[in-house]
Amino acid sequence: MNKKILSVLQSIDEISKTQGGVYNISFQQGTFLAMLIKAIKAKNVLELGVSHGYSTIFLANALSETSGKVTAIEHSKEKVIIATKNLANAGLQDYVDIKHGSCLGIIPQLDQEFDLVFLDIHKDQYLDALHLFLPMVRKQGIIMADNILTHKDGTKLYVNYVRNNKDLQSLLVPIGNGFEMSLKI
């Protein structure tokens, strides 16, 4: 990761410490997501929940190496503007298509197959979103849901569903706020 990208990540991290409403994954989680993208040679990634673009930068940077693109959905217009600026400052804007609006409203409009989905929206929407995007995930594709350790009550139904779904193999990855990693089989 180059110095320009690291500088933008550091700037977003500083803002998240001083302002409310800015929630980032950990640097370790971002690195893990980037490693997964490279390992599976992902071309199409779906990100649900962008905030200021911290995780998006990790996704886009990895996709710059696989010639891929992330489709990112964010409901807050203000956050779309900030994330777009951060991606431009990192030099990664060409690897991201940010869509403004409700994930549950936009997902049905998408017409592509995804190699990896990163899920980080309101926890009570995880399961509804999964039902919408799961048919779009390729076989052997990966779904990464964040905040499994920090929001146990809010993610309980989602976790129970993915762990008991015959089309998924799932487990907890206990880094950062905790990922539930699901492989579509």
Mind explaining what this structure looks like?
- It is built from 7 helices and 7 strands.
- With 185 residues, it is α/β, with parallel strands linked by helices.
- It has one domain: Rossmann fold, CATH 3.40.50.
- It has a 7-stranded mixed β-sheet, sandwiched between helices.
- Strand 6 and strand 7 (179-184) form a beta hairpin.
- The longest helix has 16 residues, at 3-18.
- It is globular and about 45 Å long.
- The mean pLDDT is 95.
Question: What is the gist of this entry?
Answer:
The protein is α/β, with parallel strands linked by helices.
Detail the topology: elements first, then pairings.
Blueprint: H1 3-18, H2 27-39, E1 44-48, H3 54-66, E2 69-74, H4 77-89, E3 96-100, H5 103-106, E4 114-119, H6 126-133, E5 137-145, H7 152-163, E6 168-173, E7 179-184
Parallel strand pairs: 1-2, 1-4, 2-3, 4-5
Antiparallel strand pairs: 5-7, 6-7
Low-pLDDT runs of 5+ residues are none
In total, how many beta strands? 7
The CA-CA distance between the termini, in Å, is 32 Å
| Secondary-structure element pattern, one letter each | HHEHEHEHEHEHEE
The total domain count is: 1
Q: What integer value in Å does the Rg equal?
A: 15 Å
Question: How would you sum up the global shape?
Answer: globular
> Class in CATH?
Alpha Beta
Report the average pLDDT across residues. 95
Number of helices: 7
Per CATH, the architecture is 3-Layer(aba) Sandwich
- State the share of residues found in helices, binned by percent: 40-55%
Subunit arrangement of the protein: single chain
